[in-house]
Specification:
243 residues; alpha+beta; outer membrane lipoprotein receptor (LolB), chain A; globular
Length: 243
């Protein structure tokens, strides 16, 4: 679902580059395209409050390069989990079970693993997520060092519903969605973005209020090295052959 939205957003991003004079939206979109053209980069994701909704509890560190691999280190409470993703395939490494496919990881360890596996299945690196955010942004204006604006109702709803295990077949009901977004740019390159979403998500017959801010900081541009463990690569390549 996210990848279909991303394709449409990328068309808009490419079109914005032909604008004669860049308005705030044009500058943001050009900076996102520039990020996508980099050979490699790293990032860190922080969620406040850390236990809000069903997002990863602690910081998530990621890196990617032109190989298409995404390597993540996810902190949940006192546990560190590694994940390697490529396209729609992935592998997860936990202290208890070692390297597993995303499907195997989601089936082990109860509901929390299913939530995390669902999020990893649709995970987008900063370039992709920022593209989606720009497609949902409205009335972007310069605000100090940032470009800030609101999110459309559908955009906020999509972010609130994302990552819940049932979203693939039956969208999780969301009420009163709203949100804001900020982008930081330097020398024509996206360096950081942040979005704040609020709303009520209904899951298993219960409403859960979500009010959280997600901040993504991009770093180590051009110097990031992506080293994929052999165990993870075997799992991802094996799953490809079966399909």
């Amino acid at each position: 679902m996210k990848r279909n939205i991303l394709f449409g957003t990328m068309v808009l991003l490419a079109g914005s580059l032909f604008a004669a004079d860049f308005n705030p939206m044009g500058e943001v979109r050009a900076a996102i395209v520039a990020l996508g053209g980099l050979p490699n980069y790293s990032w860190q994701v922080m969620v406040e409050p850390p236990n809000g909704g069903v997002r990863f509890n602690g910081p998530t560190d990621g890196k990617t390069d032109r190989s298409g691999y995404i390597c993540l280190t996810v902190t949940r409470d006192d546990t560190t989990i590694e994940a390697v993703l490529k396209g729609i395939k992935g592998a997860v490494n936990t202290p208890e079970n070692g390297w597993q496919s995303l499907a195997e990881f989601g089936q082990a360890g109860g509901g929390r693993n299913r939530f995390l596996a669902s999020q990893l299945e649709d995970y987008l690196p900063p370039m992709g997520q920022a593209a989606n955010l720009s497609g949902s942004a409205v009335e972007l204006k310069k605000d100090g060092d940032a470009y800030a604006g609101g999110l459309t109702e559908n955009g906020a709803k999509f972010l609130l519903a994302s990552g819940w295990p049932t979203t693939r077949d039956n969208a999780v009901p969301v009420t009163n969605p709203k949100g804001t977004v900020k982008f930081w740019i330097k020398d024509g390159l996206l360096l950081k973005y942040e979005y704040h979403v609020q709303g009520a998500v209904s899951f298993n017959g219960k409403d859960q209020n979500v009010d959280q801010t997600i901040t993504v900081v991009i770093k180590d541009v051009g110097t990031t090295k992506v080293e994929v463990p052999d165990e993870a690569k075997k799992i991802i390549e094996a799953k490809k052959k079966k399909n």
